[in-house]
Design goal:
By secondary structure, the protein is α+β, with helices and mostly antiparallel strands. Helix content is 31%, strand content 25%. It contains five helices and seven strands. Strand 6 and strand 7 form a beta hairpin. Helix 2 (82-92) packs antiparallel against helix 4. The termini are far apart.
Protein backbone atom coordinates (compact mmCIF):
# COMPACT_ATOMS: atom_id res chain seq x y z
CA UNK A 1 0.00 0.00 0.00
CA UNK A 2 2.81 2.39 0.91
CA UNK A 3 4.66 1.57 -2.32
CA UNK A 4 1.51 2.45 -4.32
CA UNK A 5 1.24 5.87 -2.61
CA UNK A 6 4.92 6.55 -3.29
CA UNK A 7 4.39 5.74 -6.95
CA UNK A 8 1.47 8.22 -7.19
CA UNK A 9 3.40 10.92 -5.33
CA UNK A 10 6.40 10.37 -7.60
CA UNK A 11 4.23 10.59 -10.70
CA UNK A 12 2.61 13.80 -9.42
CA UNK A 13 6.01 15.38 -8.75
CA UNK A 14 7.19 14.49 -12.26
CA UNK A 15 4.03 15.97 -13.83
CA UNK A 16 4.31 19.18 -11.83
CA UNK A 17 7.97 19.49 -12.73
CA UNK A 18 7.13 19.10 -16.41
CA UNK A 19 4.47 21.81 -16.14
CA UNK A 20 6.85 24.22 -14.44
CA UNK A 21 9.57 23.74 -17.05
CA UNK A 22 7.15 23.95 -20.02
CA UNK A 23 6.17 27.53 -19.22
CA UNK A 24 9.54 29.03 -20.18
CA UNK A 25 10.27 31.08 -23.25
CA UNK A 26 12.86 28.75 -24.76
CA UNK A 27 12.65 28.39 -28.53
CA UNK A 28 13.92 25.27 -30.24
CA UNK A 29 12.98 23.63 -33.50
CA UNK A 30 11.16 20.65 -32.01
CA UNK A 31 7.40 20.10 -31.71
CA UNK A 32 5.76 21.19 -28.49
CA UNK A 33 7.99 24.24 -28.06
CA UNK A 34 6.31 26.84 -25.86
CA UNK A 35 5.76 30.28 -27.31
CA UNK A 36 3.36 32.26 -29.40
CA UNK A 37 2.14 31.59 -32.88
CA UNK A 38 2.63 34.92 -34.64
CA UNK A 39 0.42 35.89 -37.58
CA UNK A 40 0.84 38.98 -39.72
CA UNK A 41 -1.64 40.04 -42.39
CA UNK A 42 -0.34 42.73 -44.75
CA UNK A 43 -2.13 44.89 -47.29
CA UNK A 44 -3.82 46.18 -49.24
CA UNK A 45 -2.51 49.59 -50.27
CA UNK A 46 -3.15 52.05 -53.09
CA UNK A 47 -0.57 50.53 -55.45
CA UNK A 48 1.13 47.21 -56.08
CA UNK A 49 2.36 46.29 -52.62
CA UNK A 50 1.94 42.61 -51.80
CA UNK A 51 -1.12 41.60 -49.84
CA UNK A 52 -0.65 38.39 -47.84
CA UNK A 53 -0.79 36.74 -44.46
CA UNK A 54 2.05 34.83 -42.86
CA UNK A 55 1.93 32.63 -39.77
CA UNK A 56 4.96 31.28 -37.91
CA UNK A 57 5.11 28.95 -34.95
CA UNK A 58 7.90 28.46 -32.43
CA UNK A 59 8.35 24.87 -33.59
CA UNK A 60 9.64 26.08 -36.97
CA UNK A 61 6.65 25.92 -39.29
CA UNK A 62 5.51 28.79 -41.45
CA UNK A 63 2.62 29.37 -43.82
CA UNK A 64 2.38 32.14 -46.43
CA UNK A 65 -1.09 32.80 -47.81
CA UNK A 66 -0.93 35.23 -50.76
CA UNK A 67 -3.82 37.51 -51.60
CA UNK A 68 -2.59 39.95 -54.25
CA UNK A 69 0.64 41.05 -55.96
CA UNK A 70 2.79 38.10 -54.89
CA UNK A 71 4.97 35.58 -56.73
CA UNK A 72 3.26 32.49 -55.34
CA UNK A 73 -0.20 31.46 -56.56
CA UNK A 74 -1.44 29.79 -53.39
CA UNK A 75 -0.71 28.85 -49.78
CA UNK A 76 2.98 27.97 -49.35
CA UNK A 77 4.60 26.26 -46.38
CA UNK A 78 8.14 27.14 -45.30
CA UNK A 79 10.50 26.49 -42.40
CA UNK A 80 11.46 29.06 -39.76
CA UNK A 81 14.70 28.70 -37.84
CA UNK A 82 14.74 29.35 -34.10
CA UNK A 83 16.88 32.45 -34.75
CA UNK A 84 14.39 33.83 -37.30
CA UNK A 85 11.51 33.25 -34.91
CA UNK A 86 13.36 34.96 -32.05
CA UNK A 87 14.24 37.98 -34.25
CA UNK A 88 10.63 38.40 -35.36
CA UNK A 89 9.28 37.98 -31.83
CA UNK A 90 11.82 40.46 -30.41
CA UNK A 91 11.14 43.05 -33.13
CA UNK A 92 7.39 42.98 -32.47
CA UNK A 93 7.49 42.57 -28.66
CA UNK A 94 7.65 46.29 -27.76
CA UNK A 95 4.37 46.88 -29.58
CA UNK A 96 2.41 43.89 -28.28
CA UNK A 97 -0.71 44.90 -26.37
CA UNK A 98 -1.53 43.30 -23.03
CA UNK A 99 -2.54 39.65 -23.27
CA UNK A 100 -6.08 39.10 -24.46
CA UNK A 101 -6.56 42.60 -25.84
CA UNK A 102 -6.65 44.29 -29.21
CA UNK A 103 -5.20 47.68 -30.04
CA UNK A 104 -5.57 49.81 -33.14
CA UNK A 105 -3.03 52.35 -34.37
CA UNK A 106 -4.03 54.37 -37.36
CA UNK A 107 -5.93 57.29 -38.74
CA UNK A 108 -6.52 60.20 -36.40
CA UNK A 109 -6.87 57.91 -33.38
CA UNK A 110 -3.18 57.75 -32.46
CA UNK A 111 -1.33 59.64 -35.21
CA UNK A 112 -0.57 63.25 -35.90
CA UNK A 113 0.94 62.62 -39.38
CA UNK A 114 -0.86 60.13 -41.57
CA UNK A 115 -0.49 58.92 -45.20
CA UNK A 116 -3.59 57.16 -46.52
CA UNK A 117 -1.98 55.10 -49.31
CA UNK A 118 0.08 52.73 -47.12
CA UNK A 119 -0.73 49.09 -46.28
CA UNK A 120 -2.46 47.97 -43.13
CA UNK A 121 -1.09 45.22 -40.88
CA UNK A 122 -2.84 42.95 -38.43
CA UNK A 123 -0.47 41.24 -36.03
CA UNK A 124 -1.77 38.49 -33.76
CA UNK A 125 -0.06 36.55 -31.00
CA UNK A 126 -1.75 33.26 -30.08
CA UNK A 127 -0.55 31.12 -27.22
CA UNK A 128 -1.93 27.63 -26.67
CA UNK A 129 -4.63 27.76 -24.04
CA UNK A 130 -4.63 31.58 -23.84
CA UNK A 131 -6.59 34.30 -25.56
CA UNK A 132 -5.45 36.12 -28.67
CA UNK A 133 -3.60 39.42 -28.52
CA UNK A 134 -3.91 41.60 -31.61
CA UNK A 135 -2.48 44.84 -32.97
CA UNK A 136 -3.97 46.56 -36.01
CA UNK A 137 -1.54 49.05 -37.52
CA UNK A 138 -2.08 51.35 -40.48
CA UNK A 139 1.51 51.90 -41.65
CA UNK A 140 0.60 55.33 -42.96
CA UNK A 141 0.97 56.52 -39.37
CA UNK A 142 4.19 58.53 -39.74
CA UNK A 143 4.69 59.42 -36.07
CA UNK A 144 8.30 58.81 -35.01
CA UNK A 145 7.21 56.59 -32.09
CA UNK A 146 6.04 53.96 -34.62
CA UNK A 147 9.12 54.04 -36.88
CA UNK A 148 10.53 50.85 -35.30
CA UNK A 149 7.23 49.04 -35.78
CA UNK A 150 7.07 50.09 -39.45
CA UNK A 151 10.68 48.97 -39.92
CA UNK A 152 10.01 45.59 -38.26
CA UNK A 153 6.99 44.93 -40.46
CA UNK A 154 8.81 45.94 -43.65
CA UNK A 155 11.75 43.69 -42.63
CA UNK A 156 9.55 40.67 -41.84
CA UNK A 157 9.80 39.11 -45.35
CA UNK A 158 13.61 39.32 -45.20
CA UNK A 159 13.69 38.09 -41.60
CA UNK A 160 11.69 34.99 -42.57
CA UNK A 161 13.40 34.53 -45.97
CA UNK A 162 10.11 34.83 -47.85
CA UNK A 163 10.84 38.10 -49.71
CA UNK A 164 11.24 36.32 -53.12
CA UNK A 165 7.74 34.86 -52.69
CA UNK A 166 6.30 38.35 -52.27
CA UNK A 167 7.73 39.92 -55.42
CA UNK A 168 4.85 40.88 -57.65
CA UNK A 169 4.49 38.77 -60.78
CA UNK A 170 5.22 40.62 -64.04
Amino acid sequence: MLAGKRMWVGAAVLMLGACASAGGDVVTSRPGTPGDTISIAAGPCFGVCPSYSVTVTPDGSGLLEPRKNTAVPGPTRFTVTAAQYRRLRAALAPFRPATGTAKRIGGKEHCTRFATDMPTYKIAWDQAGASRTQLDFQSGCQDARYARLRAALVATPRTLDIAPMLKARP
